[in-house]
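Hi team,

Below is the intake form for Peptidase M23 from Christiangramia fulva. Please confirm the fields before the structure is written into the shared record.

FORM ID: S-0412
PROTEIN: Peptidase M23
ORGANISM: Christiangramia fulva
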Amino acid sequence: MSNFSEFLSSLTTEFTPVIGGYEKEDFAAIDLSEENPELLKLEVASSEAFSVFINEYLKNHQARAAYGGYDEVRNLYKRSGLFNNPEQNRNIHIGLDIWVPPGTAIISPLRAEVHSFRDNDNFGDYGPTIILKHTFGDRDFFTLYGHLSRKSLENLEVGKKVKAGEKIAELGDFDENGDYAPHLHFQIMEDLKGNKGDFPGVVKREDRELYLENCPDPNLLLKI
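The structure came back. Fields below:
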């Protein structure tokens, strides 16, 4: 485990929510990798079909929220030229997804300030996105919140202070979140590498190790 991963894990000692109104027992892990045979039956290009799949999964597992996806190889991105094009084939997911209904409150797990925000409105992209900056001692790092509602970006200001557990946004629906079944993409970055309001959340195989080192498993912090 890298030094940053160890530091990250030390910041919290128990379940630390990033969505409001949910407890640890409300979550069920979900596999959305290319190895899951259930996905072969699904029309992955349809956000509506995927929503039905997620809702059935939650019902069958008696859960309110599904989570997972870190370092997961997925076929979901083949539908979008943003990821699947002659220059690159990005299919390794390096954030943590939490599948809950649109309108769900998104909260900061730690004290922070708003670093940047943007509506990444390409098909298959994040849609409205917020990046927070966290400072603990002499160490800075960043968290990204993707697939939000457009309303979440209204009246937002760079530098705004945020308390741990404070609501920062609401989850968007498929018509504003890049055309996905509603979910939060949560990612941690040690170095933003000059990015503002955006950072790759899906990478190609040859870049995997570099990105995983910079973007450790968010569950080290959340402890779902």
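SUMMARY LINE: The first helix runs from residue 3 to 10.

Thanks, M.
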